[in-house]
Design goal:
Shape: globular
Radius of gyration: 24 Å
Distance between the termini: 74 Å
Strand content: 15-25%
Order of helices and strands: EHEHHEEHEHHEEEHEHHHEHEEHHEHEH
Structural class: alpha/beta
Helix content: 40-55%
Oligomer: single chain
Largest sheet: 9 strands, mixed
Number of helices: 15
Length: 451
């Protein structure tokens, strides 16, 4: 018989057995206790009513699904002795990321559901990813190798999704229904643009040597003479179905290009593939199958770029992630936060390039951004990593980034993405005094002449 805390009904033990441990009651005041049905329903209804008072309630609700299923595996034989302490860290970490009347519920030994009401779901998603990173970092201090905690965010209409919910099973069923509806909407959005979708190529420059070293593959459609990237064709994508289908399209199109174009094979081709595509078993296999079909000649020029690599993913998680796709490409590239690069995570993997997110910090504080970028470049060279910047779109910002010593640049300031990769590899833009190669402005002019 599992002992209970005062004022509660008997709570089921976790599935891995053991005495004196139960998932419920919750370890913080924000936690819901599904073993107390009346209180469970009452607190959810209170959250729903408060949410209804917001100016735009249907744009703000979200559910965040924390996956903690791998945590016991990382602790091994010590798990029975440490699990109460670990669950305190997990629940308190989730609770600290919430505000107002937001709530969470432990949905089982491997899952925590958190509900946010106030912020837009994209803003809440960023907050929860950072929370997962902080929890992971805390747990990594307890055992060598770390324990990966991940989170998926779904926009969730609290006004409809929480009405009349009486128990945990009904709550999970509602979430699953919303997820299926979102997935179907994303699939329809892709089917609407599938016939018009095409791959364009943004040159990647090494300005110090005046070389076009490769291209970044950009999927999108041409409308009214302008190229629209795929990401803006489905702005509310949340479950990864649209992104996964675009990822597969990019891989297939890139493979066809590299097979038939000799001059494209002289450089590298960076093809974005989303993190969620790789970690979600529901959408991963078609993408892996597309990679598996690529011939060896194509793989030698292909670099797979993860533009949404989450912060805080420990080295063990990076190794597992790289292992899924590293045999299909020459190397891997990953995005990172400029103020939290954590380059040690990339050791022992096939990641050879890091792509910091620069534009948001640059808009706030140019001097601080330059300091962080120079620091990153120095650290990356020590670990034999190249640094590329893809998100800066103005000449002044590009000049600052170039002066910080980054290895590669690609930018909308260099012109729209090209219908075919550049045939010429060296820019005719002269050398700057001191042997510093092209400036971004003269590079843009040279690219315009060659494109």
């Amino acid at each position: 018989m599992v002992p209970t805390r005062p004022g509660t009904s008997a709570a089921p033990p976790v599935e891995d057995g053991g005495e004196g441990f139960a998932l419920y009651p919750p370890r913080t005041r924000r936690g819901l206790d599904p073993t107390r049905a009346g209180e469970f329903a009452m607190r959810l209804e209170r959250l729903r009513k408060l949410h209804a008072l917001l100016p735009e309630p249907r744009l703000c609700g979200a559910v965040h699904i924390f996956d903690v299923s791998r945590v016991p595996l990382r602790f091994g034989a010590e798990w029975p002795q440490l699990r109460e302490k670990v669950w305190q860290i997990l629940e308190h970490g989730v609770a600290r990321s919430l505000s107002g009347e937001d709530l969470y519920v432990v949905a089982g030994p491997g899952k925590i559901l958190a509900f946010t009401s106030g912020p837009r779901w994209r803003d809440a998603e960023r907050t929860m990813k950072l929370a997962a990173a902080r929890i992971t970092e805390r747990l990594c201090g307890l055992v060598a190798g770390g324990a990966t905690v991940t989170v998926r965010t779904l926009p969730f209409d609290l006004l409809v999704g929480l009405v009349g919910v009486r128990d945990l099973a009904e709550l999970e069923r509602r979430i699953q229904e919303f997820g299926r509806a979102l997935e179907e909407r994303e699939r329809r959005a892709f089917e609407e643009v599938r016939a018009r979708l095409e791959l364009r190529y943004r040159p990647i420059l090494r300005l110090r040597t005046r070389l076009v070293v490769g291209h970044l593959a950009v999927a999108g459609v041409v409308e009214e003479g302008a190229f629209r990237p795929a990401e803006i064709l489905c702005p509310d994508r949340a479950v990864g179905a649209f992104d996964a289908m675009v990822d597969r399209f990019r891989i297939d199109a890139a493979g066809h290009l590299l097979e038939r174009s000799a001059h494209a094979r002289r450089g590298l081709l960076l093809v974005p593939i989303h993190y969620e595509t790789l970690v979600s078993t529901a959408v991963r296999e078609p993408v892996i199958a597309a990679l598996r079909r690529l011939p060896t000649t194509v793989r030698r020029r292909l670099v797979l770029y993860l533009p949404d690599l989450p912060p805080g993913l420990p080295q063990a998680g990076m190794v597992r992630l790289a292992g899924l796709v590293e045999t299909f490409a020459r190397a891997l590239a990953g995005a990172l936060a400029l103020d939290r690069p954590e380059l040690e995570r990339f050791e022992g993997t096939r990641f050879r390039m890091v792509v910091p997110t620069v534009a948001p910090l640059l808009a706030e504080d140019r001097e601080a951004t330059a300091t962080l970028l120079r620091r990153l470049v120095r650290a990356a060279r020590h670990q034999r990593l190249r640094v590329a910047v893809f998100d800066v779109g103005d000449a002044a910002g590009l000049s600052l980034v170039h002066e910080c010593g980054v290895d590669y640049l690609a930018s909308s300031a260099f012109g729209p993405p090209l219908a075919v990769p550049l045939a010429r590899r060296r820019l005719d833009c002269g050398r700057r005094p001191g042997g510093r190669g092209c400036s971004p402005t003269t590079a843009a002019t040279a690219l315009g002449a060659q494109g």
